[in-house]
Design a protein that fits this description.
The complex is a heterotrimer of chains A (147), B (122) and C (86). Chain A is mostly helical. Chain A has four helices and no strands. Chain A has one domain. In chain A, 72% of the residues lie in helices and 0% in strands. Chain A starts with 7 loop residues before the first helix and ends with a helix. Chain B is an all-alpha fold. Chain B has one domain: Helix Hairpins, CATH 1.10.287. The longest helix of chain B has 32 residues. Classes of the chains: A mainly alpha (147), B mainly alpha (122), C mainly alpha (86).
Chain lengths: 147, 122, 86
């Protein structure tokens, strides 16, 4: 476990693949209304893109993509996006998480308002899932070096 | 009898998977193997629910313009899919917590074997 | 488990109780209700997304809290053990 070695080929392959996986994760989140996908799946893909570089590159290089201190705030922001959408529905005069009453500009029909509300909470879910998966991995790495 | 066995074939496979998971959870000594068996058990249940949701001549629950939504036999039952999406994510969370605790146990006792762990705790 | 399987419908049986149009007590079956009304209610073709985010939104919110709590448990358990070591 103390023996750390780095292979430049593995690192190069990981760095080559990671942006494409990240892009595909964003596609899965934002295209989740029209094809199988959504916040959880896309968030897992984004976390996979980040963790790939972290596994291949070690401690220093892995921090370049998403530094470790940023994971907890992103997770909190994801939860707050979801909760804030629900709360603003209360403030707009409906029930909790009832997106039909949200006053989006240029939207008159409640169904399209629900469409936009779903998109917002999918983004919140994706951010939270990505940040928390990366956070669990970071904590495991930190807790592992015991001797 | 043959009809019963063939008609339920998806359930037999999930049953086998579930028994494998139960065996691992009960008889393996290493705690990590127990957690992996828990994951196998969980995926057996998830596969069972997804198998329940299926219909003949139906497609995934994404609305397409060719198939009218009024005729429900065109689409799979979406409710088990949604529930299993929830179950998968909760399973990931429990796995993360389980491995976190295993790392904490290993940091303290330097073993993950169940019997050695019980000896060291006393 | 084999005995329990005798009560289950065949796999992909279109006429089983959970895929039927009308439930035994006369109301609509919930899965079919979702299929028929999801696009009307939210203009989103993906029915699973509509159920996850709209009909069962509070459930999904609790689920997000669950994974957030899992991350917090990771921080609380492992960060502290490192500090004690020093």
């Amino acid at each position: 476990m103390n023996k750390r070695f780095q292979s430049p080929i593995v690192l190069l392959g990981a760095r080559f693949l990671s942006p494409y996986i990240f892009m595909f994760g964003l596609y899965v989140i934002f295209h989740g209304h029209y094809s199988p996908g959504g916040g959880f799946q896309g968030g897992a893909l984004l976390a996979a893109a980040i963790l790939l570089v972290r596994v291949a590159g070690g401690e220093k290089i892995g921090q370049l993509q998403l530094i470790e201190k940023l994971t907890t705030p992103i997770g909190v922001i994801g939860v707050i996006i979801y909760f804030g959408t629900g709360l603003s529905a209360i403030l707009a005069g409906g029930n909790f998480l009832d997106y039909g009453v949200l006053p989006f500009p240029g939207v008159v029909e409640p169904a399209w308002s629900r469409y936009i509300g779903l998109l917002i909470i999918e983004v919140g879910i994706g951010a939270a899932v990505m940040a928390i998966l990366v956070m669990i991995y970071d904590n495991m790495i930190k807790g592992e070096d015991y001797d | 009898m043959i009809d019963f066995a063939l008609g339920h074939y998806a359930y037999w496979f999930t049953m086998i998977l579930m028994v494998i998971g139960l065996y691992g959870m009960m008889f393996k000594k290493n705690l990590i193997k127990k957690v992996v068996s828990l994951a196998i058990f969980q995926s057996a249940i998830i596969l069972f629910f997804v198998a329940v949701a299926s219909k003949w001549d139906a497609t995934v629950p994404v609305k397409s313009d060719l198939l009218p939504v009024e005729q429900v036999s065109n689409y799979l039952n979406p409710l088990p899919h949604t529930l299993m999406l929830t179950a998968i994510v909760v399973g990931v969370a429990t796995l993360g917590v389980a491995f976190t605790f295993l790392i904490a146990i290993y940091n303290r006792y330097h073993t993950l074997d169940e019997q050695e762990l019980l000896d060291k705790m006393n | 488990m084999v005995y329990a399987a005798t009560d289950l419908p065949n796999r992909a049986d279109n006429n089983s109780a959970m895929h039927a149009e009308i439930s035994p007590n006369g109301g609509p079956v919930i899965g079919n209700y979702f299929i028929q009304n999801a696009y009307k209610d939210a203009k989103t073709p993906n029915i699973v997304t509509v159920i996850l985010g709209d009909y069962r939104g509070i459930d999904t919110f609790g689920e997000q809290l669950v994974i957030f709590t899992a991350g917090l448990v990771g921080i609380l358990v492992l960060r502290k053990s490192k500090k004690l070591k020093k």
